[in-house]
Amino acid sequence: MKQSSGFFPTLREAPKEAEAKSHVLMLRAGLIRQLAAGLYIYLPLGWRALRNVEAIVREEMDAAGAIEVLMPSLQPDLLWKQSGRWDVMGPEMMRLQDRNEREFVLGPTHEEVITSLVASEIRSYRDLPKNLYQIQTKFRDEIRPRFGVVRAREFIMKDGYSFDVDDDGAGVSYQAMYDAYARLFHRCGLTAMPVEADTGVMGGSRSHEFMVPAEIGESEIVSCGACDYRANRELTESSAPESVSSANALPLEEVHTPNQRTIEEVAAFLKVEPASMIKTLIFTDGEKPFVVLMRGDCAVNEIKVAKAVGKPVELASPETIQQVTGAPVGFAGPVGLTGVDVWADLSIKSIGVGVTGANKADYHLKNVAIDRDFTVDRWADLRLAEPGDVCPKCGKGTLSMTLGIEVGHVFVLGTKYSTALNAVYTDEKGERRPMVMGCYGIGVSRTLAAVVEENSDDKGIVWPVTVAPYHVHLLNLSPKSEEVTKASAELYDGLRAAGFSVLLDDRDERPGVKFNDADLLGLPYRVIVGEKGLKSGQIEFVQRKSLEKEPIAPADVIARVKGLYAEELSRFTP
Ligand code: ATP
Ligand code: MG
User: Kind and range of the H or E element at 460?
Assistant: First the structure.
């Protein structure tokens, strides 16, 4: 492709609102342009790179035995009402009506559609297992679209769904997808780590997210320094600290704490450690309020609370807090509370004697003895894991934390959807059973952004050969010179004939502009043809990774590119 006749706009500066490195580079290098919040146009370079990612995903899915289909984005409401998700999905799901006022959704995912298809087409154990996938546009009205195509409102996803006769079968399908994911992300030039993930309040049994470590990552990943434990922070178990006796506690004492509401304020005011305070939070499960007690220096993990309670939960409103405790926000405590369930995190046992709110404006209680002054209905692990915690798996190492971009997710769903949408089969004994499902997602467009995020330097993108929109950037430094243009054309044809894709910069621009753009675009191999070099028989070859220039005879260029390409490709193929 000739740069002069193609469509390759670059920007010297990125728009101010672009915060993420990948977002800045994708705009500057002319990969994408924003149409509206969370909606992006792919320009030719971005589209080529995206299709390379897609091709890798497709190859690995096909190799793992998954079968490609294509489902409509537009889905009738009925299926969502049958699965119960019409209400659960809330405003993130884009909804619309047709001319007859029938309701539809723009699919955020396709469990309902695929399950209804399988329910009507597959009846016997003989036709199972099946694993179906598609690569298609999804719609989600994200509250906060950000970081370019990392979190968009319209994006490209690979979504796959497996159907098995039983849990064992589903485990085999799951493992095949897990392995395929590890391979395909590696082929894209990504360090994607599988981490144990939450399976949600609604069930499901096994789940891993594939995370690419990155500053802009929105997921917190916890890993052990001593063993292979790696999990989403939300999921990480916390071990119980040692209990401390409260046998010698002094009598309860009310203390005046005017306007001291937070743990930090009260701790400083009373000159006590946050770790000796009993943080008292009021939650609601949608029907009734309940209390969660947490040691003052620890944070509550809402996902653990939801799992313990068995329902989605949220922090109660100031009005509810007033009703439950009789005091405004900031003065709640477990002593004397009635009519609500009290859950306590195991960390509370290590307080012994502590400080907590008095359920009275501007007052706290001192000398609160854990096993004297209040009762706990349920003890549980409700704490958010912190860096430095002891590893819950090996019990030896300590945990550290990194941020990651979730590029993929594999999940054993069980029979939730097959039961709701009647995807049943007849087994060998003639009995009807629900199929056991798994679902497997990859954010294809997010993966492209992650590739850029992980593969760049201060000058621009540094594409892995597998995803690069072109393999070679051929710079004709003197498009007005007949010899240079002829030599460039010969190299162009030769490289293409050898199977490489080539972007020929034949624009009438200064060399400096061409070099800067070439650094920004980041194609793996650069061949520079100038008048001087051509005369001496030595033009220049540059690998984008190192940016080191080496002299090369025009006749040696193809062999050099072939050699490097083969070497690099072997690194990307596990
Ligand atoms: P997130 O927690 O980032 O919102 P999710 O759990 O909602 O992700 P899934 O429903 O599992 O995501 O979707 C499968 C994959 O689709 C994700 O792993 C991610 O790579 C991608 N994805 C999800 N939401 C978006 C989005 N708004 N923009 C781009 N890609 C997305
Ligand atoms: Mg989401």
Answer: strand 460-461
62: how many CB neighbours lie within 10 A of its CB? 13
Structure tokens at 311: 């329902």
Specify the pairing of strand 342-345 against strand 289-295: parallel
The atom of ligand 1 lying closest to the CA of 157 is 16
> 472-571: which CATH topology?
Rossmann fold (3.40.50)
- Determine the Cα–Cα distance for residues 256 and 361; give it in Å rounded to an integer: 9
- Contact between 533 and 540 under an 8 Å Cβ cutoff? The reply is yes
Per-residue CA distances from 220 to 140, 246, 443 (Å)? 22, 36, 18
Q: Are residues 71 and 136 in contact, defined by beta-carbon separation less than 8 angstroms?
A: yes
**Can you tell me the distance from the alpha carbon of 497 to that of 353, in angstroms, rounded to the nearest whole number?**
79
Cα distances from 490 to residues 494, 509, 550, 563, in angstroms, run: 6, 21, 20, 19
Residue 40 parent element (H or E): strand 39-42
Using one digit for the tens of pLDDT, what is the confidence trace for 64-103? 999 999 999 999 999 999 999 999 899 999 999 999 999 9
CA distance 540 to 523: 15
Distance between CA atoms of residues 488 and 528, nearest Å: 9
Ligand 1 in contact with 449 (CB < 6 A)?
no
Instruction: Output the residue whose Cα is nearest ligand 1's atom 29.
Output: 151
The per-residue DSSP string of 387-438 comes to TTPBPTTTSSSBEEEEEEEEEEEEEEEETHHHHHTT-EEE-TTS-EEEPEEE
Q: Which letter does DSSP use for residue 199 in this model?
A: -
Q: Where are the domains of the chain?
A: 21-236+401-453, 253-380, 472-571
- Domain 21-236+401-453 homologous superfamily, CATH: Bira Bifunctional Protein; Domain 2 (3.30.930.10)
Q: How many helices (H) and strands (E) does the chain have?
A: 15, 31
What pLDDT digit, counting tens, does each position of 216-270 carry?
999 999 999 999 898 899 889 888 888 898 888 999 999 999 999 999 999 999 9
* Topology of the domain comprising 253-380: YbaK protein (3.90.960)
SS3 content of the chain, % helix, strand, coil (to 5): 30, 30, 40
Q: Where are the alpha helices (DSSP H) in 395-503?
A: 416-420, 444-454, 482-497
- The widest CA-to-CA distance across the chain, in whole angstroms, is 98
What pLDDT is stored for residue 11 in this prediction?
A: 95
- Mutate which of 85, 188, 446, 452 for ligand 1? The one with the most ligand atoms within 8 Å of its CB, which is 446
User: Which listed ligand is nearest to 219 at the C-alpha?
Assistant: 1
446 lines ligand 1 (CB under 6 A): yes
State the distance between the two ends of the chain, measured CA to CA, in whole angstroms.
Answer: 31
